[in-house]
Amino acid sequence: MSRFSLDGSRAFVTGANTGIGQAIAVDLARHGCHVIAVGRSAMDATLAAVRQAGGRADPLRADLATAAGAQDAFAAALTRFGPIDTLVNNAGIIRRADSIELTETDWDAVMDINLKTVFFLSQAFARARFAAGTGGSIVNIASLLSFQGGIRVAAYAASKSGIAGLTRTLSNEWSTMGITVNAVAPGYVVTANTEALRADPSRSRAILERIPIGRWAIPEDIAGAVTFLASPAARYVTGITLPVDGGWLGR
Q1: By the 8 A CB rule, do 98 and 73 touch?
Q2: Where are the domains of the chain?
Q3: pTM listed for this prediction
Q4: Contact predicate 34/11, CB 8 Å
Q5: pLDDT tens track, the chain, 251 positions
Q6: Alpha-carbon distance 66 to 72, whole Å?
């Protein structure tokens, strides 16, 4: 069997209804993983894409805006589907505003989904794996703003910087128990979250000029890195935040 095969494994993927999360779900399934596609919206498009790729996925509706809602969803997945080998913390939101204008409501909404939920889902996953006496993998979705400050996205940048730190901490604590914890940091990707940037001609041009590969990423560009980190091929990789940015940070 290929060291990149995920045959017989099961993954819990949040925010799997569209964009990067959908691409991750499809790619994991293509490599043999049974995907539990989690989110508050319908998963019809994701399920259809997984079937077309020859894989298996099941939808699970969940409110990821609260830690309790996320934990309840994970518990429901364990009961319905059985042990989960990989947790992909992809769900996230962004609120754009000048920092002097950013509201507490928007700050809390971003932090709750992008960081708080990630921690408590990871905790629930680790507790289940420890109880079973088995290892596993956690892959968090970070951002270029885990390394940089960004503009008009204070809460988002803070949350994604927090993801990088949380990834290292959980790796330090849990790798000895067989759970690898890593993050993937996408560059500028064609998704709903970047629509405002792509609609701004000057910002879009400035971004594109800095990317050595010469184009924006598509979600599938990010998915391969997640699949690698979830696979046996990455069993000695832990505690990293891997940029997938077309060379942006090297510029």
Answers
A1: no
A2: 10-190+220-241
A3: 0.96
A4: yes
A5: 689 999 999 999 999 999 999 999 999 999 999 999 999 999 999 999 999 999 999 999 999 999 999 999 999 999 999 999 999 999 999 999 999 999 999 999 999 999 999 999 999 999 999 999 999 999 999 999 999 999 999 999 999 999 999 999 999 999 999 999 999 999 999 988 788 888 888 888 999 999 999 999 999 999 999 999 999 999 999 999 999 999 999 98
A6: 10
- Among the listed residues 74, 119, 125, 156, the single catalytic one is 156
188 is catalytic: no
Scan for tokens 């939920």, then name that residue.
Answer: 117
Domain 10-190+220-241 fold is Rossmann fold (3.40.50)
CA atoms within 13 A on the CB side of 63: 6
Closest CA to 126 of 194, 90, 173, 166: 173
